[in-house]
Amino acid sequence: xxxxxxxxxxxxxxxxxxxxxxxxxxxxxxxxxxxxxxxxxxxxxxxxxxxxxxxxxxxxxxxxxxxxxxxxxxxxxxxxxxxxxxxxxxxxxxxxxxxxxxxxxxxxxxxxxxxxxxxxxxxxxxxxxxxxxxxxxxxxxxxxxxxxxxxxxxxxxxxxxxxxxxxxxxxxxxxxxxxxxxxxxxxxxxxxxxxxxxxxxxxxxxxxxxxxxxxxxxxxxxxxxxxxxxxxxxxxxxxxxxxxxxxxxxxxxxxxxxxxxxxxxxxxxxxxxxxxxxxxxxxxxxxxxxxxxxxxxxxxxxxxxxxxxxxxxxxxxxxxxx
Length: 322
Description:
The protein is built from nine helices and 14 strands. It is an alpha/beta fold. Strands 3, 4, 5, 6, 7, 8, 9, 10, 11, 12, 13 and 14 form a twelve-stranded mixed beta sheet that branches. The chain has a two-stranded antiparallel ribbon with strand order 1-2.
């Protein structure tokens, strides 16, 4: 149904005459007549009869009028829902237990007026595709991995660096340590069955292992976080890495230990990605949140891969695309 025709119908009812409706809509009287005739053809009924007093509604016109007003109100709501700043800002946070979700929560508490829609996508390729198609406004990722470049229409800004911690069970040799160095971990089995080849986190942990001579095992099925924690709780031989802001909950009897890693501190470099032509005003507020340093940045001696140096200025990073 042509909403311009519906709008013309309602304007004619309110004005009382085709001529006055034409003046209200800034069109010709002939245009008003054609729109009404087209609407009547679609509906299969007559809506008006012309009298000396103007355009009078038929019984069918009277029945259609409240529905016509509903249609126009629905149109107004639909337009308003995607107006500047009206639509929720849709952000990919990788996983709801991970640091990007926690940092986005910090942003929401600082800017409660910004409506957010939080989603989780699998890897950087999926995130970039979603940004380019417009299904998400932005995504948190580590960029740029070896062998891949950001498309020229994708912008990236350093968001925050997240220190990596060691997670062990109570019987592990390092369980009593307050902190360890990466060198202390050489020879220990670090089990990370959730790592998927080709992802940005696989590139990060692969470089971390190579830099410090670590043994990071990705063998075995990935049954999820809880089975991994159950295994760590009963073995003295395995440990794993987790981000400092990764949210984990385990039964008290597990007695798991989160141990800081220093000298240097491995830092996972999270960046924010978005499309260069995205006009959503809340994107600027999100970027400013990171520029202000409210998300926190690691201090002291740190390590990051050569492809994602940190620390660096929190701001826009030029795309590496052609």
